[in-house]
Structure formats: structure tokens, C-alpha cells
């Protein structure tokens, strides 16, 4: 039977002919892939090699979103790419190790080497450990430019850190099995508790974890930072010992691309929180729709996950619109330094969430385009949009949400809003 695994598909590339062919290919272009494949086979190349090389070029073109120009020199499997930390984020991980003054970092479960690359790129000595043999082979290729990086195909927890001269550990445990996401950190590989237990052997331990991790499972003496990239929450990092110069607590790191095309990084910390495992503070919401202010503020997902909504409310003189709802309302635009953490809307009207009345509005105003956001209500924006019979040239943005203190009879409200430009 043919072996169709990603590892078998890569094997032809890890030969001198395979490597030469891969190096000779142009950047991947879907519209040219078929004719390129035919011409390579007509030129006498083995069909399995041609298929492997074109698959690799396709993965490299996808990988450019995470690794930029480096992707063209790297090798990937679909899973390895999917799980790899993008360079914009791994650079921040690596900067913590460099600033802590550590020398040799063990990356325990290095995958195709996304994080190991960033660590090595900052001049750190890296021992990248991966138990899956084909993945370790790819990490070896990907780390080839770095003299001080070595890949070891082994179980992460079997490594003798002391004998290897390791003084810092990074781990990004595998959080999937059988195509399923595992939410329990004790089902990850390696387990979160096993990685954190290494703190007895090295002072500097950092772990990338799922952003939805329950705060109660976090070590109370670590600094935990949630990261978003262009509005998408991508991870939380648990930073221990010298990797946490900010001290125990929680923060959000918001990464984006500025209008000038340059990367931007903004941090927000909750000064009142010195124990990341503590439950986030909940503020009293407005009591009714009458108290909705001129503005609706939507915190970035990293700030929400980091439990910073109350901190943002304090700093913007605003209040949550409902119990445990991460929308804030007030009358003052946030100061410029908070802009990366808050999307701002001007509230034009507040309507009851009543389908008949909303349909009448759509008809009367000739609304053909409707953007719907929602929080805290069992409403599907797509289903709501479909049931409204949109028709006309008008356009509106609605935010469907629960308002006030939670109450079982609460049916929610629709806030008709307009965006306030981010660059003010
Ligand atoms: C989420 S991926 C790491 C991705 C990596 N940080 C990157 O940026 O490319 C986790 C990796 O850990 C490996 N792994 C899981 N358990 C392991 C163990 N006990 N020892 C070594 N590697 C392990 C998996 O094979 C997988 O490649």
C-alpha cells in the first residue's frame, strides 16, 4: 500500500535531485501549477518528486503569512505550518530570553522550528527537541542557517537539561489529537504541569498556551501575556522567573501593522492584578438602555482574555453594557495610547431586539447592506440578517447585545452604530 503521509511526501525532496529541483522552482502560482507539473514530468523528473516539490512550494507560499521571505528557504508539513508560531509573535518570545541574559534555550516540542528560529535569530544557543522524526528533520533543515542551533529527535521530558548546559526552557505543547483541540492542559503534549515542573531545574521557563485557558489553571507567580495579531487572539504566554521582568500578573500584547506598513506592538497591563490565576474583576454594568452613552467601545480580544476589561473601563470612564459583556459604553473617546485596545463606535440609536420592528426599519430605510456584531445573546448574525429581508441601497451597522444586569427575561437590544476612525 502507498504511504500517503506528509513525511513520505517529503522524502523525495530530501535527496540531492529533490533539493535541486525545489531550489529551481519559481514562487508558487496556482494558475501555473498544472502546466508546470506537466512540463517538469515531460523533462524527465519523477512524478512523485514533482508532486512533492509543488506541494512544498504551495506550503511555502501559504507560510509567507507567518514567516515572510524566510518561508522560501524553509520546509513545511501542513500540520507543522498550522501549529508554527508566526515570526511576529515568536520574535517577542525570543526577546524575553535575550533580555533575561540566558545562554542556551531548550525548545521542548519544537515542531518545524518556528520559535527555535526566532531564538537562534537573536544569537541564542538553541537545543530544539522534537519527538516526531519527520518533523525533526524539517526543523533541522529550517535551522540550518544557525550554527548554534541543534535539533534532537527525542521525547522532550527525557532531555538531561543539566548535561546539555540548558539554562532556559520554552515549550509550545501540542494541543490537538485526532483532529480535535484539547482544552485540558493536562491532555497536551507535553502536559502543562510537566513543563512547569521544570522550574525546579532551570529558572527561566516559558510556555505558549491556548488563549482560552482557564485563569484558575495559571501559576500564580508567573506573568501571563495574551497576544493578538491584527485583531485575532493567537495565544497566551506563561513567563516565569527572569522571563517575566514585569512581575506576576496579566497583560495584553496587541500586534498590528501601522498605516505606514510598519509593525506596531502595544502592551497593556492590569496594575491591580499580581496573580494571574485570580478571577478578573467584574464591574457593575449600566442598568438599562437609557444609560447607553454616546460611544460603544469594543476591547481587543487579547485584552478581554487577559481580564483587562475593567481596567479599560476605568481608564475610559466607561461601563460594561451588560453583566459579563465585553462592550463598554461612555461619552469620551479613549486617549490615543488606548486606541490599539479599543475599537470605537458612535451610538446613533438604541432599539429593542424585536424582529417585527427591525424588519419595518429595514423596509422603511431601504437597507440592503447590514453589518451585524453581537455579544451575549443566542442570536446568529447570519440568521438575523436572512430573516430581515434586506433590500435597497442603504447600509447600517448593528450591535446586538444584552444590556443591563443579567435577567432571564432580558431580550437584548440593537445599537445602531457608526465606526469612529482608528487613526484620529
Ligand atoms: C505546537 S507544535 C510546536 C510548534 C513550534 N513552536 C513552532 O513554532 O513551529 C508542538 C510540537 O511538539 C511535539 N511534541 C509533542 N509532545 C512531545 C514530546 N513529549 N516530546 C517532544 N516533542 C513533542 C509535536 O510533535 C509538535 O511538533
TrEMBL record:
InterPro entries noted in UniProt: Methyltransf_11 (IPR013216), SAM-dependent_MTases_sf (IPR029063), Thump-like (IPR041497)
Start and end residues of each THUMP-like domain: 343-418
Residue ranges of the region described as Disordered: 260-284
Sequence ranges assigned to domain Methyltransferase type in this UniProt record: 107-171
Example GO BP: methylation
Keywords: Methyltransferase, Transferase
Highest taxon listed in the record's lineage: Bacteria
GO molecular function: S-adenosylmethionine-dependent methyltransferase activity
Name assigned to this protein: Class I SAM-dependent methyltransferase
Native organism: Actinomyces respiraculi
Phylogenetic lineage: Bacteria, Bacillati, Actinomycetota, Actinomycetes, Actinomycetales
